[in-house]
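Re: the multi-chain job from yesterday

Posting the exact lines I submitted so nobody has to dig through the queue logs.
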Amino acid sequence: MSAAPVVELLWWEGCPSHPNALADLERILAEEGLSAPVELVEIESDEQAASERFPGSPTIRIGGEDIVPPGEGEPFTLTCRVYRLRDGRVSPTPDPADVRAAVRRAKEDT
Amino acid sequence: MIAIGDKAPGFTLPDTDGVEHSPADDGITAVVFTCNHCPYALAWQDRLTQAARDYPGVRFLAVNPNDAERYPGDSLEAMQQRVSQEEWTMPYLRDESQEVARAYGAQTTPDIFVIDGEGRLRYRGAPDADHNDPALNAAWLRDALDALIAGGQPDRPETPPKGCSVKWKS
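And the result, structure tokens for all chains:
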């Protein structure tokens, strides 16, 4: 068994969705019994977006892996990220089911 | 920046075919600042499309004010592509200079301004309370339109706009 993975939420102030994403993430971490603090990383420039490989706000990474990997060629820039819920609707935040699946995968690896 | 009751700035902007549009001279107009890349704007789009269909006597104008240099997904070409691929019930206008968005004080996409037949601002804000709940059906916007059509004033003239910040040119 290894240590709990690093859980990061990368965000940009131009998009108001990260508080909701953080609330979902923290709730699901608690429900799944994964005691990992969420590290908040503010992205403030296009240069930082490129170096962090930030496809938009919010982006959640667990163990360094984006829980919803961006599509090939998706630019890294200061923008709001467009997610698809499992029913196909557009959303500013990832589907909680996708967050839960990622947390469970991380939990299995610890 | 205009307040409820103020005269709304007039404007003329081109749509994706180059046809120019302005607010109605003596009717109700809903100016919807929106864009291509924002998930909030996209999430509310179907509700706004339906509202424009349901209120044929109201002039709906969608206006994209975003800086397309930094956000190529909001370029005129990207707007044209979107209109050709989707069902649009209102013209999609390009505010290249961003002067209209600045005159109105648009903050987000979406951000809605409803103007009455005298050209005065009577509603400003979000379509409804939750981008994530299609059942809300742009209720705040519809309430405002219903009130104006009935000759009254909206009970809720202002709501907080919610969405991505307008991408201003630097």
